[in-house]
Amino acid sequence: MNRSCYCLWDVQSTDRSAAMAELLCSDPGLGEHTRELLLRALEAREHAGATLVSPGISMPHCRSLLVEDFIVILGRSRKGVPWPDEPARLIVLFVSPVKPSGPQEHMELIKHLATKISESGQKLFKARSEEELAEMLGFRLAGSGTDEPGS
Amino acid sequence: MNQDLEKLISLHDLDIMILDLGRTDILQQEVRLGLSPDMALTELTTMREQLASTIRKRWMSLYAQITARYDNAVVPVIMQRCSGCFTRLPTAVSSADDRNEQVRTCPTCGRIIYWAD
Ligand SMILES: [Zn+2]
Predict the structure, then answer these.
(1) How do the pLDDT tens digits run along chain A, 151 residues long?
(2) Sequential DSSP letters for B42-96
(3) Nearest to B23 among A32, A41, A103 (CB)
(4) Are the Cβ atoms of B39 and A44 closer than 8 angstroms?
(5) Do A49 and B43 touch (CB under 8 A)?
(6) Beta carbons of A37 and B13 less than 8 Å apart
(7) Domain residues of chain B, as ranges?
(8) Which CATH number belongs to the domain containing residue A60 in this structure?
(9) 85-114 of A, contacting B, C-beta below 8 A
C-alpha cells in the first residue's frame, strides 16, 4: 500500500463525532462544507454500528462522492475517545472515493488495515512519532516526502 | 448549500454504503475486523428510508430516474465540467454565485450536480 495519510498526534475531543470532526480538520484539502457532509456520512456509519475493530482502535470509514481520492487520517488520543462504550486511543479514519474501481480499492484498503492491525496489535500504541505510526500501518505521512495525500 | 441538495448528497452516500455492505468481499473484510456489517446494513437501510421521507417528492423522483440510468446520480463539478459525463458546463451556470443554492442538473446527462468548496 503506497498511500499517504495525515496524522493528528494528540486528539483533544472527548466524544466520537467531535473526534471525527477534529480529524477531518487536519486535512487541509477539505473545505468546510465538504467536511460537514463527510462527517454526516461517517456519523451515519457509526450510528449503524460502532467501528471499534480492536481494543482501543476505531476505524470510522465510508465511501463518499465528496472525495476525489482516498483520505486517510490517523488520530491518537492519550485519554481515549468513548467509541461509544469503549475508549479508542487510536482512530484510523478513511474515506474512499466513488469511481468504478472504488469498491474494489475500498475493500483492499480495509483488508490492508485488518492485516496491519492484526500484525502490529498493541505495538501501535507504542509508536513514538506520527511517522512511525503511519509506517506501522503501511502509510506515508503526507508532506514527509514527495507524495500527495491519497496517492 | 440548498438543504435539498445536501440531503440528496447524504442520500447518495448512504446508498453507496448500503451497496458496499451488500458486496461479499467488503462484507468479509468487515467481519474480519470484528464489525457487524449485517446489522449495520439493516440500520443504514432504515436511515436511508427516514432521510428519503424528508426529501421532496420531485427530487426523489428525479434521483430515482437518474439512478435507473447511472451509478452516480449526484456528481461534483470539477474544473467547470460535470464529473459524470465530463461535459463543460455553460459559464452562466458555473459562475453563478448561488450555484449550490438550488438543485441543478447537468444539461447534457441530467445528473444532479454540485460545486465542492
Ligand atoms: Zn453530465
Answers:
(1) 678 999 999 999 999 999 999 999 999 999 999 999 999 999 999 999 999 999 999 999 999 999 999 999 999 999 999 999 999 999 999 999 998 888 899 999 999 999 999 999 899 999 999 999 999 999 999 976 545 444 4
(2) HHHHHHHHHHHTTS-HHHHHHHHHHHHH-S-SEEEEETTEETTT-PBPPHHHHT-
(3) A103
(4) no
(5) yes
(6) yes
(7) 3-115
(8) 3.40.930.10
(9) 98, 103-104, 106-107, 110-111, 113-114
